[in-house]
Amino acid sequence: MKPYLEKLRREDGSSWAMLNRRLPDGIPFQWHHHPELELTLTLNSRGQRFIGDHAGDYDDEDLVLVGGNLPHTWSSTEALKPDEPHVALVLWFGEDWLEQLAASAVELGPISDLVSRARHGLHFPRQTARAIRARYEALFEMGAEQRLLALLELLLILAADRTAAPLSTSGAQRTDVASRARIDRVLAHIHEHHTEPIRLETLADLAALSVSGLHRMFLKHTQTTISDYLIRLRIADACARLSATDQPIQHIAGETGYASLANFNRHFLRLRGMTPRAYRQRFRHG
């Protein structure tokens, strides 16, 4: 399941984008990424979320901040109120835009730290989601000027919450434009081809670096090795297939890039603490 690049459009007269998604048939698995940060409040829905190499359950009032270019999706299994739609209230804003705002006023400084923490994805506790829910929903009824001020107030509240839990073990780091272009090309290729054999020489060519230079750059920006990043991405993909399909486990192993079922099982157990079969059973009966 390859993540696709989503291109977002802002309304005229607005610096950021938002969407009130109401889905009677549930939230579909749509593995995607985009350069903007995304803040999502999910309501009347239960299922699984996938953020980078994280795979976990979610429930009503799920509040998550996703960093730019971090692949993600939600996939619902049921609505808490079956006669009402699943709801995803989504806000998108550019990292550079937020950084410029934070740099322009010392009072907005905490937002810069929030942006940095979001590169791995952040899950906020339910008590936080409940505390900000009313003002979050009110954003969708405001005019552009009032909405901007309300967004900044909301982000400052979230920045002050130090109990938010990071989700993905890997995430792109802040860097200059040239370095960002290099790591983005490498990450895009890995995500596009993670179910196939990936040659280090190909990645090095994309980054215009030697193989050793590639390894240093990748470690600097993701705090992990290329091989470990790829393993975690493949296992996250496998988790999505185990929870959303009836495909045989051996088939899933092959479809996510594993020629050896034994290697797949070993990596899955190391990262998820259980076998693929147990994971599927836990998801379906949990």
General description of the model:
With about 290 residues, the chain is an alpha+beta fold. The chain folds into two domains: about 5-165, Jelly Rolls, CATH 2.60.120.280; about 175-285, Homeodomain-like (Arc Repressor Mutant, subunit A), CATH 1.10.10.60. It contains eleven helices and eleven strands. A hairpin with a 2-residue loop joins strand 5 and strand 6. The chain has helices at about 95-105, 110-115, 125-140, 145-160, 175-190, 200-205, 210-220, 225-245, 250-255, 260-270, 275-285, and strands at about 5, 15-25, 30-35, 35-45, 45-50, 55-60, 60-65, 70-80, 85-95, 120-125, 165. A six-stranded antiparallel β-sheet has the order 2-9-4-7-10-11. It has a three-stranded antiparallel β-sheet with strand order 6-5-8, with helices on one face.
Q: CATH-wise, what's the superfamily of the largest domain? A: Regulatory protein AraC
| Percent range of helical residues | 40-55%
Strand content: 15-25%
What is the distance, rounded to the nearest whole angstrom, between the alpha carbons of the first and last residues? 24 Å
Overall pLDDT score: 88
What ranges have pLDDT less than 50 throughout 5 or more consecutive residues?
none
| Annotated CATH topology of the largest domain | Jelly Rolls
Radius of gyration: 19 Å
